[in-house]
From TrEMBL:
Top-level taxonomy: Bacteria, Bacillati, Bacillota, Clostridia, Lachnospirales
Protein name per Swiss-Prot or TrEMBL: tRNA(Met) cytidine acetate ligase
A cellular component annotation (GO) from this entry: cytoplasm
Catalytic activity: cytidine(34) in elongator tRNA(Met) + acetate + ATP = N(4)-acetylcytidine(34) in elongator tRNA(Met) + AMP + diphosphate
Signal sequence, renumbered to the chain: none
Family listed: Belongs to the TmcAL family.
Single GO BP term: tRNA modification
């Protein structure tokens, strides 16, 4: 029995995700799909639009067999840390045959060539990267410029500069390269497979077409909130059209009960946290340099909302997403020592089960038989795990739940009270 792994946020789950799930199984011939999914916070440094258990329920309803949670220190990290954590978790399961991911490029050979260079980091490439960083370029731009220049000096690669520029400008390609780097660094036997992204672009915020992007769906939900005193049923119905049919009931039953959730819902919590911090303490958090810490301290009296503060603090060389990740790390207490040690060891300390299809329980049996890490199905009975990483995750989710219950006036349930999603057909 073959198993394909998929790394996802499903923020929220939409028709494009359903298409990817179906095609991943079809082209690999896999009998089941294991999803490594971000929990209540995502890689852009914001809370997920829906709680993780709701997104798990949607994924299982649309063909996922097992959903495992990516620890929050990885889920909110840079593309490199995000990929390292997720791939190392798939590798640690010991039963995954394929890793299938979407990309704008759609050509595994070209992506692999780029990943090999970035993984090995030849001396010439490192020199060129430092040169472009010193010239004031943000890391993504510096990496692209360095790679193109390296390509011009190394004729053994089949890529052309125009290809590289387009590839390194596309978000799914960037993640694909990081997945391939992680597989190489782990010397993994998992076979990578890529599917060409179809439909709207990653950042496209217009609903409609073949597959609307998750960005467009989140923007649509936010637009509905801005007009909540008006009749926005037609707008919600428009959003529902972009979701798989199996998700409609889940969406309708939970809308305005536990979602949508936005970064600005965390504004007061973040402001309170920032008021207690000094520059020296800020630099201990993941992603925060002394320069970013200085800007936070300098401008914190002008703080109004989470999103407004990101706009205020960002610079030409430090992106909005980077600032957002910095702020979420401050709020959740994720320090630099929480991730580098794990990244160096290339492993997650445990596998946290969020949900599974009853008919696919054989996948769980296979995981438990082959994995070298604990599989957590009950928080009340963790044994032999990285307790700090787990406690960090529990705190982050409890904080998220606090915001949700305050916003929608619903009963509070902590992580210990929440049940695994079991889908029976």
């Amino acid at each position: 029995m073959k198993i394909v792994g998929i790394i996802a946020e499903y923020n929220p789950f939409h028709k494009g995700h359903e298409f990817h799930l179906e095609k991943a199984k079809k082209i690999t011939g896999a009998d089941a799909a294991i999803i490594i999914m971000s929990g209540d916070y995502v890689q852009r440094g914001i809370p997920s639009i829906m709680p993780k258990h709701l997104r798990t329920q949607m994924a299982l309803a649309c063909g996922a067999d097992v959903v495992l949670e990516l620890p929050v220190c990885y889920a909110t990290g840079s593309a490199e840390y995000f990929a390292t954590g997720a791939v190392s978790l798939l590798e640690a399961l010991g039963c995954v045959d394929y890793l299938c991911f979407g990309s704008e490029c759609g050509e595994i050979k070209i992506l692999q060539q780029i990943a090999d260079v970035l993984c090995k980091e030849p001396e010439l490439y490192k020199v060129l990267l430092q040169k472009h960083l010193k010239n004031g370029n943000a890391f993504p731009a510096a990496r692209k410029l360095a790679f193109i220049e390296y390509l011009g000096k190394n004729k053994s690669l089949s890529c052309i500069p125009e290809q590289i520029s387009a590839i390194l400008d596309s978000p799914n390609n960037i993640l694909a390269i990081e997945y391939l780097k992680a597989l190489s660094c782990l010397n993994s036997s998992i076979e990578p497979v890529t599917i060409t992204r179809e439909g709207a672009g990653y950042h496209d915020q217009t609903l409609g077409g073949l597959f609307s992007s998750a960005s467009a769906l989140r923007q649509g939900l936010q637009d509905c909130e801005l007009t909540k005193n008006a009749n926005h049923t037609p707008a919600i119905n428009h959003i529902l059209q972009e979701l798989p049919q199996n998700c409609h009931k889940i969406f309708k039953e939970n809308y305005h009960k536990c979602f949508p959730v936005f970064a600005d819902d965390f504004s007061l919590l973040l402001k309170a946290k920032l008021l207690t911090e000094t520059k020296d303490i800020l630099t201990r958090y993941l992603d925060i340099t002394p320069e970013i810490a200085n800007r936070i301290i300098t401008f914190r009296n002008d703080f109004l909302t989470f999103s407004q503060f990101c706009d205020l603090i960002k610079t030409k060389n430090v992106t909005y997403s980077r600032i957002s990740r910095c702020l979420i790390h401050i709020l959740l207490g994720i320090s630099k020592c929480d991730v580098p040690d794990q990244a160096a060891n290339s492993r997650c300390g445990y596998a946290r089960l969020l949900g599974f299809r009853q008919e696919s329980s054989w996948v769980l049996t296979s995981i438990k038989k082959n994995t070298g890490i604990p599989v957590i199905s009950k928080l009340s009975q963790p044994a032999g795990i990285d307790i700090h990483m787990l406690e960090q995750n529990i705190f982050a989710s409890d904080l998220y739940e606090s915001v949700v219950t305050d916003k929608y006036h619903t009963p509070y349930k902590n992580e210990y009270q929440k049940q695994i999603i079991r889908l029976t057909l």
